[in-house]
Amino acid sequence: MKRSISSSRVIASLFLVAIAFTQGCGEDDDPLVPGTLAVAVDPTSGSAAQGGTVSIPVTVTGQGNFSGTPSVTVTGLPVGVTATVADVVRSGSTSTTSVTLNVASTAAAGVYPLTVVATGEGVSAAGAPFTLTVTGGTLGLAFTPSTLSVAQGASGTSTVNITRTGFTGDIGLTVTGAPTGVTATLSPTTATGNTSMLTVTAAANATLGPATLTLTGTSPVAGNRTATLPITITAAPPSASIALTLTPAALTIARSASSTTTIALARTSFTGDVTFAAENLPAGVTATFTPNPSTGTGATTTLQLTTTGATPVGTSTITIRATGTGVTAVTAPLALTITQ
């Protein structure tokens, strides 16, 4: 009887132990649930001058079964930049620290993508991106030509020359100061190379006189620099044209004879060839122009009219026409009288 009671007590004890073990192995402590890490940095970017520092606040959150204290490092550091990690402080599943990036005076200026990495025992490493800008170097801007004159209704260009010393990277370009009726356009506006082209266009009613354009170059590394371009807006030149004057403007010629008149050619903003022709000539009358065409800046041409014995007697009006490429054709009348 005593042996039966002892066996019952042993069985009851084992049952209580089994219950306690089952309750102790809750879902949160299930060894099959993997542990993970999540890393956050705020802000996600920062800058430091050569010889300076920048601090990165870091938060590491343990998830799943991970409850240890993580280690923090930084990868992607350029030459001349080192990272100092402060003590990691854990509170429950969250750990915090800060990373100080120390930028040597010899570090190359530029923009660098870094990764803040957290590691822990039994879990995979996790990271968060951080962009470091090391400021320094010098930016230079200059115009060629250094001044610009543009007529109303026309355009002109000047090359922007860019120099970088001690840094690389894109340069953002903007231009201000254009007077009324004038537009200033840059191509490109983000310079990856060493030049950009500035085109200045003046409308037909653009404000006349001098003005100054200001070019601003922006670099996150080297800062902002400016350069100025003096411009002058001038009046539009007269339109190209030609005009004719005949001296004399009337000829009297007998049959089987000839006579001449001088054609004065006035040129305005035009130096091209001018070709002459005579229209409405009476029967038996021929016209000869010397020279024809009139080239360059030629100002006079001689017209000779020649009749035959069969040319009808009478009075008529001949039309002298002058034409040239890029100008409107013009005419002048010549009164002609044929006698016996």
Secondary-structure topology with pairs:
Blueprint: H1 2-24, E1 36-41, E2 45-49, E3 53-63, E4 71-75, E5 81-85, E6 89-91, E7 94-103, E8 110-119, E9 126-135, E10 138-144, E11 148-151, E12 155-165, E13 171-176, E14 182-187, E15 190-191, E16 195-202, E17 209-219, E18 223-234, E19 241-247, E20 250-254, E21 258-268, E22 275-279, E23 286-290, E24 300-306, E25 314-323, E26 330-339
List keywords for this structure.
single chain, 340 residues, mainly beta, Immunoglobulin-like, 3 domains, five-stranded antiparallel β-sheet, five-stranded mixed β-sheet, 1 helix, 26 strands, 56% strand, rod-shaped, disordered N terminus
How is this structure best described in words?
The protein has three domains: 102 residues, Immunoglobulins (Immunoglobulin-like, Sandwich); 97 residues, Immunoglobulins (Immunoglobulin-like), CATH 2.60.40; 99 residues, Immunoglobulins (Immunoglobulin-like, Sandwich). It is built from one helix and 26 strands. Strands 1, 3, 5, 6 and 7 form a five-stranded antiparallel β-sheet that branches. The radius of gyration is 46 Å and the shape is rod-shaped.
Quickly describe the structure.
The chain has 340 residues and is mostly beta strands. It folds into 3 domains: 102 residues, Immunoglobulins (Immunoglobulin-like, Sandwich), CATH 2.60.40; 97 residues, Immunoglobulins (Immunoglobulin-like), CATH 2.60.40; 99 residues, Immunoglobulins (Immunoglobulin-like, Sandwich). It contains 1 helix and 26 strands.
